[in-house]
Amino acid sequence: MLRGLKRNLLVVAALAIALSCSAPAFAKSYLAYGGGPVGGTFNYFANAMASYITNTYADIEVSSEGSGGSTANLKRLNKGDVDFGIVYSGDAFLGRHGRLPQDATKYDKVRAMAFLYGAPAHLVVKKKDGITSAMQLEGKRVAVGNAGSGAAAAAERFFTHLGLWDKIQRQNMGYSAAAAAFNDGKLDAFWVFVGYPNSSVIEAAARDDIQLVDVGADAEKYGFYKEYPFYSPMEIPAGTYRGQDMPTKSFQDAAYWCTNANVDDEMVYKAIKAIYTPEGLKHMVAAKKTAKSMNIPDGLKGVSVPVAPGAAKFWKENGLNVPDIK
Fold first, then answer.
1. Boundaries of every domain in the chain
2. Could you tell me which CATH class the domain 120-253 is placed in?
3. Considering the chain, what percentage of its residues have pLDDT values greater than 70?
């Protein structure tokens, strides 16, 4: 009988040991992060952030997922298919209000976490023409980007707001083709909506004395930011391009780290806190130099949708005013 009791006790002990080895010591949260097409900037950011957060916390694992990009992430976030995602501020704003092109759906469950980087507008003219404002382009030949591109959409918003969209001779073409046509005298101006320095503008400046129009000054003067609050003012520094002796006022759309409204506030707080440490930001820049624009003072630059409560807690702790967006 004693031998049987001992055997039973050994079995119980073995089971206890097996269960203790197989059961986790704590609950682990698994979060999905929507990036973008393979090799694109969105994917670099999503991969770098997912790995850093996962390595920072034992109880959080974030996996990066490829996607179609900004609007695809917006829709997946709204449905709760992913927990984090990168979305352009403009898409988030228009989607929230049911104003995406040919899509009246209101994607109102998406919340902003942090500004990642911006893409500014360039409006290139020849210095000899003396054009200092977009308002002087009436009747001029202007390349506005490829049809259906983000650059063309931004150009249409800007020139329409100024009452010029139907008063300029618009031409849809890519940046490099536009620069060549500009240098050959077939265009009076061309529009680029991308980070600086841009190779097509460098190309144009190598053959002609160019001028960047202060589109930011026009945006301020004519109330562009009130109509499109997802755009934010910025400056292209002097010397970015040959012959550009002064800083140029411009505006930019912002790539934003976003989340779904139902993601746990503490998870959001811990994730953003990990990335916005000196070590986290250094990790991001090592992964993609574009991340140099990430910093605490600019953490909510160009925000256009409500800020997630967990993110708001972090930014308030770091002295930022969190706007009350409805």
1. 29-118+254-317, 120-253
2. alpha beta
3. 91
Domain 29-118+254-317, CATH 3.40.190.10 — does that match?
yes
In this structure, is the dihedral angle defined by the CA atoms of residues 261, 45, 153 and 228, taken in order, positive or negative? positive
How confident is the model over 113-136, as pLDDT tens digits? 999 998 899 999 999 999 999 999
146-153 long-range contacts, CB within 8 A, separation 24+? 146/172, 146/173, 146/174, 147/172, 150/88, 150/119, 150/193, 150/253, 151/175, 151/191, 151/192, 151/193, 151/194, 153/101
The rounded mean pLDDT for the chain is 89
Q: Could you give the CA distance from residue 311 to residue 259 in angstroms, rounded to a whole number? A: 10
The answer to whether domain 29-118+254-317 and domain 120-253 are alike in fold is: yes
Per-residue model confidence (pLDDT) at position 101: 75
Say if CB 70 and CB 305 are below 8 A apart: no
Instruction: Give the global pTM.
Output: 0.71
**Average pLDDT of adjacent 10-residue blocks, the chain of 326 residues:** 46 46 65 85 92 97 89 93 93 91 92 93 96 97 82 87 96 91 97 84 94 96 91 92 93 93 97 98 93 95 94 98 94
